[in-house]
Specification:
Length: about 400
């Protein structure tokens, strides 16, 4: 009969059925029946039209049925469906066909039960479609290729792992291409996984052709199976120029994010090299170690037009100017004590010199040995040396 045709559910796993359908089925099949089914179908003939007959049709043995019967809470039918759901290849179609084989049309004709099946299957198909769209457009979760082999090279013997040599997917690509250098990144992104939508937005903006920056995202780039804290510490210290901290209330509750923030702060105390870049995307309490650092605020709508440009420039800026920018002692001295014209310099310096001399003469016996030595040095200096000393005196007074 067409109304009992369930072939459209052949590809729907039993996990698609929610708790309400399972409870409804339990309500029908839990009461024991004493009259077996009389049918021309050898699969159904002689079986009891209750949950025990359903368990036999689904392939469970006597010992399994005894174990199900001991489960008074939540009940044998719920336990039966739970065990059947775990088995691979079992579908909604197989379950409904088994109920039809037992001639339990009272279950199949129940409108609430039928509508519940349709609703659960529709919800399952919608979720699957959403997941397929995420896999197609999500830059963090790449699509799996259909052909998956056991190993790309069965003759490899280097089974010892080096957790600081190859830690990202880029390292694997670099190793396979024959390159020996490790891949470096412009920034390591420290975030809570509840804020992954903003991270995807950041990837789209900063890794575009406009800025061409390379970000390190743990969910996208880190290889599974490695120790989380040592690997992230190695990346932050040695292979990432900066670390971007995405501040949200969930971030403050994450132990991993707290470790990454404190470790990066220890590498750049006082933010002298500007290695930390905090970004506020949701209002929250700013940690004490970040309150002295300028925060890139994404919560202010009127400033968002400049947000990505400021962030990109902060990542592109050099970490340290280096000694070549202050190449000699003279340029370093002029940075703090700029020179003044020599004519005014001698007149400015002569005032303090003569005042010092008169003060030394009037002090008499109260003058110390140091003052006497300075006075005799001033009286015995030549004209050229006086000019030089005056110039130096001018510089000290300006400082």
């Amino acid at each position: 009969m067409e109304q009992y045709d369930y072939s459209q559910y052949a590809n729907i796993p039993l996990s698609a059925l929610n708790h309400g359908i399972r409870v409804a089925l339990s309500r029908y099949l839990t009461p024991r029946r004493s009259v077996p089914v009389t049918s021309a179908d050898p699969q159904a003939d002689g079986r009891l039209p209750d949950w025990t007959g359903l368990a036999e049709l689904l392939g469970f043995e006597y010992q399994d049925i005894e174990n199900f019967e001991c489960k008074h809470d939540p009940g044998p039918v719920i336990e039966l469906l739970k065990a059947y759901t775990i088995c691979r290849g079992n579908s909604v179609s197989k379950l409904l066909e088994a109920v039809k084989t037992l001639e339990r049309y009272d279950v199949l004709d129940d409108m609430r039960f039928r509508n519940g099946i349709v609703r659960d299957v529709t919800d399952y198909n919608r979720r699957q479609q959403q997941q397929d769209e995420v896999q197609m457009y999500d830059p963090i979760r790449p699509l799996q290729v259909p052909e998956v082999t056991t190993c790309s090279d069965l003759h490899r013997t280097d089974h010892r792992a080096n957790e600081t040599r190859i830690v990202t997917t880029d390292d694997v690509d670099s190793f396979r291409s024959g390159e020996s250098h490790q891949v470096t990144y412009d920034a390591f992104i420290s975030y809570d996984y509840s804020d992954v939508a903003f991270v995807k937005q950041m990837i789209k903006a900063l890794e575009s052709d406009e800025y061409k920056l390379k970000l390190c995202i743990d969910a996208r780039d880190l290889l599974p199976g490695s120790a989380t804290y040592p690997v992230t510490a190695h990346l932050i210290e040695n292979r990432c120029r900066r670390i971007i901290i995405i501040l949200t209330p969930k971030f403050l509750e994450s132990p991993a994010c707290d470790f990454q923030t404190r470790f990066a702060h220890s590498l750049s105390p006082g933010s002298r090299s500007k290695k930390l870049i905090p970004i506020l995307i949701k209002p929250c309490l700013i940690p004490a170690i970040l309150r002295h650092i300028t925060i890139c605020d994404h919560t202010k709508q009127d400033l968002q037009e400049w947000f990505w440009e400021r962030l990109a420039k902060a990542l592109q800026a050099p970490l340290d100017l280096g000694p070549e920018d202050y190449s000699d002692e003279k340029s370093l001295s002029n940075l703090f004590c700029p020179e003044a014209p020599s004519e005014s310099g001698s007149s400015i310096a002569s005032g303090p010199s003569s005042a010092s001399a008169s003060s030394s003469a009037s002090s008499g016996a109260r003058s110390s040995q140091t003052k006497s030595s300075n006075l005799s040095s001033l009286n015995s200096s030549s004209g050229s040396s006086s000019t030089s000393n005056s110039t130096r005196g001018m510089k000290v007074s300006h400082c």
